[in-house]
Specification:
The protein is an all-alpha fold and 155 residues long. It contains 5 helices and no strands. The structure holds fe (ii) ion.
């Protein structure tokens, strides 16, 4: 049987779920990070590392599903002027997954009670979350435009 990738509506649904997962992670980040010498620091680090692992897996599954959908490939030849933004969005996937892995590693080091190399873990994590949200927003706009045109509303 031929594997069929997700359609535009399914990708839009995945985007909504991902936005929720990002918000959930931000909620944990709103709590101040305990000092590394405090008893609470281990729990904070473990919760953060677990949340980042779940988020990484979620994002990774979503990117994989997007890359195996026809949407990106279909859109490029039809609309050459958006081909460049599609290319940038695809390059973002590699960068975002790398960033998520790096902060996951820092959170794990923090959870083990060793000061992470990166003292700005919360700020850095928030910056990565903003980047993912921004990326997904740009993709959502492309998907919605493609859906609109699919329904015969192309100008
Ligand atoms: Fe996406």
């Amino acid at each position: 049987m031929v594997e069929v990738g997700p359609n535009i509506e399914e990708l839009l649904m995945e985007h909504r779920q991902l936005v929720q997962a990002i918000e959930q992670t931000k909620e944990i980040l709103r709590q101040p990070r305990p000092d590394v010498s405090s008893e609470l620091s281990h729990g904070w680090g473990v919760t953060m590392a677990r949340q980042l692992t779940q988020l990484h897996d979620h994002v990774s599954r979503h990117f994989h599903s997007e890359e195996h959908s026809d949407f990106l490939e279909d859109l490029s030849p039809k609309r050459p002027h958006v081909a460049r933004s599609i290319e940038t969005l695809q390059q973002d996937h590699v960068r975002i997954l790398g960033d998520l892995q790096a902060i996951q590693e820092s959170a794990r080091i923090y959870a083990s009670g060793i000061e992470p190399d990166e003292p700005q873990l919360r700020r850095r994590t928030l910056a990565v979350l903003e980047r993912i949200a921004h990326h997904e927003h740009a993709e959502t706009e492309l998907l919605q435009r493609a859906l609109y045109e699919d329904r015969g509303n192309a100008d």
